[in-house]
Amino acid sequence: MSIIVRAAVEADFPALCGFDLTYPTSRYLLIERSGAAPEHTFTLRWRQRESPDAIAYAHYSPQWFATARAKADLFLVAEVDGAAVGLLIAVVPSWTDAAEITDLAVHRAVRRFGAGKSLMEAAPAWARDRRHRALWVEPRADNAEGIEFYLRLGFRVSSLNADWQIVYMHRDVGPRHTTPSG
Question: What is this structure's pTM?
């Protein structure tokens, strides 16, 4: 299977809207605290859900993609045999020198064939070319497949927001760039 990573175009939007974006929620990441103040120890542990479900992590439409493309600093598509099978969207907020991967999606039917990895290999090169120091992602704590995927690609867990069920992960891609103060 030959995977081509390229910039997204409007003609991709209908195919991207048809992706099966579900993932199993049988496991979730939980933070546990032990010890007494000020010597707390925090541990991240996988927990099993009693009644696992599958949820979709996004609901895309052509209008959503048009808006996203206008705001995105990077919008890539992974293509196999002329068909869009994955996407990656990144933005660089004005307050940082790091890029946030806001969306990474691969159609369930072709997961584990390299489309997601190909998209994620393009992102660090793009970030380095623009002198960004890091990439970050915020998968849901119950997206074990996604979290493990990012870990395999060198991302580290930075923190966990248990209230929002969000895991913050980052990967350094270049040196921190500072501006001289006047």
Answer: 0.85
